[in-house]
Each structure stands twice: as structure tokens, then as C-alpha cells.
Amino acid sequence: MTAIEPAVNFASAELFFGIAWDPEYLDARAEKGEPSVLGLAAGDDEGAWWKTLLLGQGHVDPWMSAPLPPTPEAIIRVPDPAEDQAIQEAYLAEFRTWRDDHEVEIDTWRRAARLIQDDYGVDVGWHGSTIGGGTRYPHLFVVGSIQSTSQWEPKPVNTEMLEPGESWVGRLERFVDDLQIDVSGAVARGWLLTANLA
Question: How many domains does the chain have?
Fold first, then answer.
């Protein structure tokens, strides 16, 4: 008998305290063209929720003024590899100069980002599949609550963590309220188990 190779290259599971949405609810919203349940600005990295809060507090994102890399179209139009490399090197030189000139602003932005992330103690995670155009779904989790395993590795659960303090619930509620996250389609709150296939 020939052994069947598994179709999944990598699998992991995560146990965490947080909020997750019904995948069918999220799929239906996407099909209607509705915005993300996370409520962040279109085009933003939805994992960078802290950026939304910092901008709302009046912070300036220094990266908005960073020079943009050459577009693929601009490079394709250059038939000479040496000229292509010259374009890339010119961009890198421009970027390094910009970074050096804005070192203080970048450092201030990064420190503010770390502070607000530590203050909330909640983050955005993702689960689902990246195989063959699969879908990944967001969830919210309390930082420090995640217990995970990968590639079918048995791992004991830290049962001491299964009695969360009131602060965990409060953190989630504050996060949802301050970011105006839509939890109307949330499938569950509390201890949740999700899987990732890649």
C-alpha cells in the first residue's frame, strides 16, 4: 500500500482568551463588499490597530513621508540590468538619507506604538488557511493568554491560566469600544481554539 502524503504542509492550533467571529458571517460581509469588522481604515494593515489610535491622538506617522520604492512598471521598462540596478541603488540611497534625517521622529513613533500596545494588552490575530486561495479570519486575543502547538505536537495546557481575572474581560471591552470594532457577528468570547493551515 502506498502512503498518502498529507495535503497540508504546516498546521498549528492556538488556544487563547478573546473574541472570534463566525466565518460564514465574515464571508457574507466580504461578498457584500462591507468593511472589515475591525473597522480600520481601508488599506491599513489590520494588525496595526495601534496606528489608528495613535493618529487619533494626534501623533504623526513619519513613514508617510518616506520615499517610495520604484514601481515594477518602471523597472520593467528598463531593458538594461545595470540601469535597473542603478535605479534600485538610487532609491536605497534616498531612503537611507531620509531615515537618517527622520531618526528622532521614527524613534518617537516606535516608542509610542510600544506604549499603547502594552497599555491595551490585546492584539489582533489570524486563523484559517493560506492554501490555494484559502481565507484567513481575524480574532482578538489577550496578550499572554495564547497557548499553541504545531505540526501535531502534543503539548500540555497550562490549566492555571484557564481562570482569567476580570482584567482580561475589561481589556477586551476597552479594546472593542475604543476601536469601535463590530462584534455583532462574534461567534464566541472567552477561551477559544483556532487552527491554521499553510
Answer: 2
